[in-house]
Each structure stands twice: as structure tokens, then as C-alpha cells.
Design goal:
Layout lengths: L11 E6 L11 H14 L3 E4 L11 H15 L14 H14 L4 E4 L8 H14 L5 E5 L1 H4 L5 H10 L3 E6 L4 H11 L4 E4 L5 H7 L3 E2 L8 H12 L3 H10 L1 H7 L6 H9 L17 H13 L1 H7 L4
Parallel strand pairs: 1-2, 1-7, 3-4, 4-5, 5-6, 6-7
Helix pairs in contact: 1-2, 2-3, 4-6, 6-7, 9-10, 11-13
């Protein structure tokens, strides 16, 4: 948790890990540990688990806590650890967040409560309650309206950022790029903003974003991290080339519902023991696999480069 006291170091490519399962659907901690090692060897600047890509809504609180503890132990303070600890229930969110804090998380990523569609005032109180409960833990808000059916408005983000010292930023997963700009304009340039939309990761840096939590880093961690490093080093042309090289992999992730395609690729590469996703998701269909293979071919230069790592 050495990054907890200096969240300015939580930048770059934060890899949102899939949660591996066995063929029978149990947690696969051994595969999870291998993924952590590969991500760090590949150059990812931080690691998350328990966001949308990690299938949190298909797991019990105890399973999520077990995965968080396993990842924290494996990272061992080598890079920042930012687990997703939110759910649709406040008591469960507080339980998982407390466990993450105890495990040594550097910050907690808290999704907006899904399904209930709370008002902006209700969202403010939700995050205020969490921030007050964990005054020594940095809190990162997580806005993903396509999955939660509610959007955290820029003015609400700014109000929370002003009112609570431990609310340090937001992961924005919306294709409305104007929203990114309005959040930074409303909250001020010191707020930390990460993109959760793959093809908006690079553009966000031009607005003042500090990095991204991109599901593509599950299958191309080295390239995604390198894109950030090239941009921050001032080599914008090279960063843009990688951005476009990653297009087929960004499309691949959503051939069918994320994270099923990513898990299938990782299984084929021998990085996890099973491509199993929990219901209501299913592993990719035959038609989906055909599309995945076509897109892997289009990204062959990136895939071949990734295979050299670990």
C-alpha cells in the first residue's frame, strides 16, 4: 500500500484483470497469480480486479474478497493496486472495501450502484457515506452508465471531489467524450481521471487525464502500457500508431459480452486454465470465435509482440 499516500503515482495503464474460473466455475487463484506476474512483467503501471471485466456481480462478497487478497499478496507493492469494491448494496460495498483496505489496496474503485437508478443527490450521499467510512483510503468513483443505467453528472463529481479529500478521481466509462471534458472542467484540472473506454484512452490524455483502465490490457498489456509511455514522453505520433494498432483488439473484446472473448484468447494462449464465464454470460459461440480469430489476425503484429513478454 505504498502508493496509498501518494495517489499521483497511480497513473498510466491500470490493467482491469479478468477473474479466472475453473471449468466447474470455481475461483482459479493459481491462474490469477500468473496473470498478475505477466501484467507486471509486461509493464502495466497498476492492477485492478473486480471491475466490470472481473464479473463481480456473478460472485459472492467472500469470493471477491478472496480474489482481492490473492492479487494484493501477489503484487506485493510492486505496482499500485486499485480493486473494484462496489456493488448495488451499500453494506456489501462497505464490507468489500474494508477488506480491500486491510489487504493493502492503494485505492478503491467504487462503481455507481446499478439497477436502482438513484438521483444525483442519492449518488452524492452514496459516495459521501463511503468516503466518511474510509477517511484514510483514496476513493475513485466509477461511472459506467451502459452497465448501471445511471450517470454520475460532472457537477456531482466536482461536488464530491471538493467535499472529500480522499475522493481523488474518477474512472469514466462513457463514449460521450464531451462528458470527460466537462468533468475536468467542473472539478478542476487536479482531479485524476482514467478512461475505461478503449478507444478514448489516448484522447483523454490530451485533455489532462492521468491514464486508463482498459480491458485491452488483458490481452495486450505491453502495448497498452507503451502507448501511455510514448505519449507522456512526447512521442505522440508513435503513441497514435499503437492506438490504431489496438483497434482490432478493442473490437475483439466486444464481439460478444466482455469478458468472454478476452477469456477465450487468454485460454488459447495458455495463460488461464479455462475460458469459463459465469452465468448469465456464456463462452463465445462458434460464430463469435470466427470473428475473434479474424480480429486476432488483423492485430497479429501486436499479438506477436505480446507473446515475447513472459
Amino acid at each position: 500500500m505504498r502508493f496509498r499516500t501518494d495517489t499521483a503515482l497511480i497513473t498510466g495503464s491500470i490493467a482491469p484483470l479478468i477473474t479466472p474460473f475453473t471449468d466447474s466455475g470455481a475461483l482459479d487463484i493459481d491462474s490469477l497469480r500468473r496473470l498478475v506476474d505477466w501484467q507486471i512483467a509486461a509493464g502495466s503501471h497498476g492492477i485492478s480486479i473486480g471491475g466490470s471485466t472481473g464479473e463481480p456481480s456473478a460472485q459472492t462478497a467472500a469470493e471477491r474478497i478472496e480474489a482481492i487478497q490473492a492479487v494484493a499478496d501477489r503484487i506485493d507493492d510492486r505496482v499500485p493496486f486499485v480493486p473494484g469494491t462496489g456493488s448495488a448494496k451499500l453494506d456489501e460495498t462497505l464490507q468489500i472495501t474494508a477488506a480491500a483496505q486491510h489487504a493493502g489496496a492503494d485505492a478503491a474503485l467504487i462503481i455507481t450502484p446499478y439497477y436502482a437508478r438513484p438521483t444525483q443527490e442519492a449518488l452524492y450521499r452514496w459516495y459521501a457515506t463511503i468516503a466518511e467510512e474510509f477517511p484514510d483510503l483514496p476513493i475513485i468513483m466509477y461511472n459506467v452508465p451502459s452497465r448501471t443505467a445511471v450517470e454520475l453528472a460532472p457537477d456531482t463529481v466536482a461536488r464530491l471531489y471538493r467535499d472529500f479529500d480522499n475522493i481523488v478521481g474518477i474512472k469514466e466509462t462513457t463514449k460521450d467524450f464531451e462528458h470527460f471534458s466537462r468533468v475536468i472542467h467542473a472539478a478542476g484540472e487536479n482531479i485524476s481521471v482514467w478512461s475505461g473506454i478503449e478507444l478514448l484512452c489516448l484522447p483523454l490524455l490530451a485533455l489532462g487525464g492521468v491514464g486508463f483502465v482498459s480491458a485491452v490490457s488483458n490481452i495486450a498489456p505491453h502495448t497498452v502500457a507503451q502507448m501511455y509511455e510514448l505519449w507522456t514522453a512526447g512521442d505522440h505520433d508513435a503513441a497514435r500508431r499503437l492506438h490504431y494498432a489496438l483497434h482490432p483488439l478493442a473490437d475483439l473484446l466486444f464481439v460478444e459480452t466482455n469478458p468472454a472473448p478476452a477469456k477465450w484468447v487468454l485460454y488459447q494462449q495458455g495463460r488461464i486454465a479455462s475460458p469459463f464465464v459465469r452465468p448469465p454470460l456464456i463462452t463465445p459461440t462458434a460464430a463469435g470465435i470466427d470473428q475473434i480469430e479474424v480480429l486476432l489476425g488483423r492485430a497479429s503484429a501486436v499479438v506477436n509482440e505480446e507473446e515475447k513478454v513472459f
